[in-house]
Specification:
about 220 residues, alpha/beta, TIM Barrel, 8-stranded parallel beta barrel, 6 helices, 10 strands, isomerase, EC 5.3.1.24
Amino acid sequence: MIVKVCGMREPDNIRDVARLNVDWIGFIFYPKSPRRFEAVDNHLQEYRLRTCQLKKVGVFVNASVETMIQTATSFGLDYLQLHGNESPDDCYTLQKRGYAIVKAIPIASAEDLEQTVKYEGRIDYFLFDTKCNVYGGSGQQFDWNILSTYKGETPFLLSGGINPDSIEGIRHFRHPRFIGIDLNSGFETQPGLKDVEKLRTFLSAIREVKKSKKSK
């Protein structure tokens, strides 16, 4: 199971989270987000040098292809996560430039999964998030049972409202394309600042779940 921690901003907090052996770490470049990574501070450059083994994910909303490529080049991003109305062609253009593409799909009902069809073969992962009036960040969990109707070939991560009480839900969730979880506001003391001990406890429990599944 891939574990992604998103909405990182503070250098010390980034380093502390990285030491928890997560897989991906996310930086939000959407200007309206309270977790926006301030690129002018150049902390990500330092982070890239110190923890290059982690995959770095840049989160964008309706940014131009040129802006995303420029940002990815400047900060050594590995993956681009797109939360807006980006077209399949835009995704494919970025993919051909060598970036792994994560396309966020907001979910409230099974009908919302229909839009995944046009992205098949043009992205690397879906991120299924809770549908709300803004681009992500609702802090609420959607009904994961809806995903039983997802029949696509593209693997996906679960997002939206995952918190320290989500262990049992993750333990019992099953889908052949489920490959990871995205953690953000459910583990914060304030926007952009993660509670490292909460994450440590949660990840320890998640890894026990993984061991249990392997032993069966």
